[in-house]
């Protein structure tokens, strides 16, 4: 979906269709949506001409759509611009672009003049398989693109844009359930809290996915998903309480049921964008992530206030160091794998991210156990994840972001964020500020660790230009 702005020097004021003498429909369907849909094949000058010989507006449409599809998958500004530049070089034009969370402003130049346009998305999300497919398409463009027609470029992108999600709603819900149950264990929870969180996150994840598939507004999907998750957690806890009365005392895992909505992907990528001085994209991603966090934690706090729940500490599990380390490795893998399913990662990609996350997160937790501050441990864990991912990416060809970000999403301090909102709701300013500062410090160190790993292993990313 896009919004086009005709531009400027040397570009034809009207665009004429050339289709080998055959009439082709031109811009006959007008969208009724708020974000009007651009029917790309209807706004081309020369659908069947070689793209190398096409008009500047047609070349610009190819470049911008490449960037837009990557942006729709959740890629950061630097990666989007890199793909657009690679495509522009094949088409023998110069591209200057400004990327935000949901839009791209692009100007293309050649010997005839310039052409500018703006393309935008109606919403945002994460789809790591789309990012992977687009990276493979860009590599194909670099090797074969000189022989593609304008129409062929758009046909290849049509296939990627219209590809269905890899997982059905129930599968995504199962991934959310497994991830949140694992998350609860890593926070210190036991079997009862894990079972309640599994049920709550499964139902909440299913509700959220169904609403997203119906294109309902994003924050409403988050709020309803969290509300369903929290209420199911409480219901399952009461049911278990009939058989095990002590289960009613296990309230600490309540927050774990809604951690599937924590926007780790935009939260981490915002830091990476800011590190590359893509301030517009970084700031917008950060604001988007904060809006989801605030919505989710407020809904969770509202429900807990009705039933009188407090964010208590987890009870000791009494595990030996060896058993604890083994379970941390296993639960870290399960958690990262589950979050990767939510990001639409293929099983092989999700398993790879899970392996990296299992090592990095276990290292982080072990450092905390030895007395290292949680903030420093988060930095080391993110750095380790980034370095491990750089080795894996070279061997397997996965997009780096599809491995690094899921592997450290499980390090995002969702529990701290909830406690901050809880104490804010009880007007405990000191307690609220304490948990806010703790959460913010960890969140800041996660992209810092990933950024350092990227700078050490990627010469192109290391330089400002």
From TrEMBL:
Location in the cell reads: Cell membrane
Q: Which GO terms describe its molecular function?
A: transmembrane transporter activity
Tell me, in one coarse class, where this protein mainly resides: membrane
What range(s) does the Threonine/Serine exporter ThrE domain occupy? 329-453
Region described as Disordered: spans on this chain: 1-32
Domain Threonine/serine exporter-like N-terminal residue range list: 62-305
Q: Where is the composition biased (Basic residues)?
A: 16-32
Membrane topology annotation = Multi-pass membrane protein
Q: Which UniProt keywords apply?
A: Cell membrane, Membrane, Transmembrane, Transmembrane helix
Q: Which residues form a coiled coil?
A: none
Show the InterPro entries listed in the entry: ThrE-like_N, ThrE_2, ThrE_Dicarb/AminoAcid_Exp
TM helices/strands, residue ranges:
167-186, 219-240, 252-274, 286-309, 321-343, 376-393, 405-423, 435-453
Please list the GO biological process terms of this entry.
Answer: succinate transport
Q: Name one GO cellular component term.
A: plasma membrane
- State the similarity comment: Belongs to the ThrE exporter (TC 2.A.79) family.
This one is known as Threonine/serine exporter family protein
């Amino acid at each position: 979906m896009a919004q086009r702005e005709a531009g400027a020097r040397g570009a034809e004021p009207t665009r004429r269709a050339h289709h080998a003498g055959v009439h082709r429909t031109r811009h006959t369907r007008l969208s009724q949506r708020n974000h009007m849909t651009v029917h790309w094949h209807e706004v081309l000058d020369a659908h069947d001409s070689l793209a190398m010989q096409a008009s500047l507006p047609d070349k610009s449409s190819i470049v911008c759509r490449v960037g837009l599809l990557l942006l729709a998958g959740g890629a950061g500004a630097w990666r989007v611009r890199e793909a657009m530049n690679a495509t522009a070089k094949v088409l023998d034009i110069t591209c200057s672009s400004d990327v935000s969370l949901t839009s791209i402003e692009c100007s293309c130049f050649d010997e005839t003049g310039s052409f500018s346009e703006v393309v935008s998305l109606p919403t945002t999300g994460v789809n790591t398989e789309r990012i992977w497919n687009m990276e493979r398409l860009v590599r194909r463009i670099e090797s074969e693109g000189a022989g593609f027609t304008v129409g062929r470029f758009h046909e290849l992108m049509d296939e990627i844009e219209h590809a269905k999600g890899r997982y059905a709603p129930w599968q995504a819900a199962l991934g959310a359930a497994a991830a949140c149950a694992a998350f609860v264990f890593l926070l210190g929870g036991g079997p009862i809290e894990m079972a309640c969180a599994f049920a709550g996150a499964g139902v909440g994840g299913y509700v959220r996915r169904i609403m997203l598939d119906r294109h309902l507004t994003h924050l409403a999907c988050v709020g309803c998903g969290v509300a369903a998750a929290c209420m199911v957690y409480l219901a399952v806890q009461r049911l278990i309480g009939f058989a095990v009365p002590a289960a009613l005392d296990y309230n600490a895992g309540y927050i774990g049921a809604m951690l599937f909505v924590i926007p780790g992907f935009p939260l981490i990528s915002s830091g990476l964008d800011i590190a590359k001085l893509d301030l517009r994209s970084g700031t917008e991603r950060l604001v988007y992530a904060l809006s989801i966090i605030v919505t989710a934690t407020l809904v969770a706090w509202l429900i807990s206030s009705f039933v009188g729940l407090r964010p208590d500490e987890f009870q000791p599990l009494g595990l030996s160091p060896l058993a604890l380390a083994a379970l941390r490795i296993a639960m870290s893998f399960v958690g990262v794998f589950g979050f990767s399913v939510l990001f639409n990662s293929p099983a092989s990609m999700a398993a790879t991210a899970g392996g990296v996350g299992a090592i990095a997160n276990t290292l982080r937790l072990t450092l905390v156990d030895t007395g290292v501050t949680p903030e420093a441990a988060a930095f080391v864990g993110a750095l380790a994840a980034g370095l491990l991912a750089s080795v894996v990416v070279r061997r397997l060809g996965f997009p780096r972001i599809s491995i690094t970000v899921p592997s450290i999403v499980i390090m995002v301090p969702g529990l701290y964020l909830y406690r901050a909102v809880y104490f804010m709701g009880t007007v405990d300013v000191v307690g609220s500020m304490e948990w806010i500062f703790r959460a913010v410090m960890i969140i800041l160190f996660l992209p810092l660790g990933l950024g350092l790993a990227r700078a050490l292993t990627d010469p192109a990313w290391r330089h400002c230009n």
